[in-house]
C-alpha cells in the first residue's frame, strides 16, 4: 500500500511539472528576427542571390509585421472570450487570400522559373503540414473535453 501511494505521489508530481513546462511561454522573436530567419531559410532552399534577397526582404517583413499584429489581436479576443462574427471571418480569410495572391505574384517576378516552382512546392508542403497540425490540435482538445 505504501508503495502504491508513493508511486501515485511521484506520478502526480511528474505530471504537474510536465504540465507547468508546457504552459510556459517561449521567448518571442521580433519581426526583424523572424524576417531574417525566413530570408535565410529561403536562401538555403531556393539558392537566392543577394539581389533577390534584398528584393524579398521588405515583402517578408511586411508579412511578418501583419502576422504579429493579427496574432496579438487574436490573443486579446481570446482573453475576452470574444468570437469573430461570420462577416469578420469572411473579411479575415479574404484578406489572407489577397495577401497570398500578392505574395505569389511578387515571388513570380523576383524568382526564376526553377526557383518559383520550388517555392510553390515548399508552400504546398507547409500547407499540408499546417492542416495536419490543426487536426492534431482539434483532436487533443476533444480528448481533453471528454476527460
From TrEMBL:
Residues 127-147 are annotated as: Disordered. It comes from the Bacteria. This is LTXXQ motif family protein.
